[in-house]
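Before the break, one more example. Copy the sequence into your notebook; we will annotate it together after we see the structure.
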Amino acid sequence: MVYRTPGREVPLGVRMVAWRAGTVDAWAYDEHGRRTAEAELRLRDDGGRLLVRRLLVRHYPDGRTGEFDVDCPRTAVDLSAGGTARISHQPEGMRGASLEAKVAVAEEHLWTARPDFGDWPAFPVADTLPVWVAARLGAPESGWRREPSRLLGSTDFDRLFRPGTRLSVGTVLDPVPCGSLRVPSGVLAVDCPQSGDGAPGITVAVPPGTYPVRAALVEVAHRRYGSHEEVVAVRLQICDVPVAAWEMALGPGQDTLGLRAGEAFGFGTDGAAGAFGDAGLWQDLRDRLERANRQGSPEADKLTASLAGVHLDGGSLGADLAVFYTGGDGVHPVWVGRSASGDVVCVDVPTAFDLNLDA
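Here is what the structure looks like once it is written out:
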């Protein structure tokens, strides 16, 4: 159900009802078409009540801020039928710290009656916080704890590219050049070149240009089998300025509110591979890679082996594909190094699952 009002191009809200599944989801929108609030309700076994399972309210600072912008302040409330709620308040958005509290909730705030047909309220969900939540936010010194941002990482990935650095797994060697990458659209894609539906899982905005790809190499000391060299990360270097903060890159629909401590989002692979490429030409680059890999292909000369994997020269596409091997299948986080001014310095992907940089 879409709710509209005369003279307004974008809807007031949307309600999605699936009684057979026992779910009601509702979204509210502002005049710019940005989602300002979300509510999840679940039908209980008795069929007469809906549990208010989750609330999320966003506050856009101005009309120019994009929908779901990582710097957008928001508050999430997760409720349980047992009478408790977990409040997560992020006044500085995903990059800022979160105020967290677990509180008792009165019975009347947990439930709402299942409406009869045609008896729905005019608005699908309020774009303001419930009074009892706002009251708790007004007294943050009482029972609140401060949690660091889960978007920002504490690991210094530059250590992997500093020769001589001692890690728990061995000693860092000189980084190895692995070709260059053209990104004409100004949007970098990072994903498995063989998996997925054609749309890149992770994208990062960078200035259009050509950038070097480097592999971090570590001499691993093994008690039984001796020493060997291993690629532990790949990097696309955008500029040569110091990294002030490391930020997890997010894919469509990924939100740090869904992460627990120590977890991270990333791109998935079932081929133990990832790649850097231009997002606007991602599918064209994938198609060219597939053709170049065929036996006897006339495009095979476009492939060059690198220490990290293979490099595809995109030729007339004006873009390239840098394929790197990962430590196996699964999900691999992508970390963006940003300068003190917020510009992208580099994009790193750790390729070793057992790499412990904090040790």
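The chain is about 5% helix and 40% strand. The helical segments are 107-110, 131-137, 282-292. Try to locate both features in your own notes.
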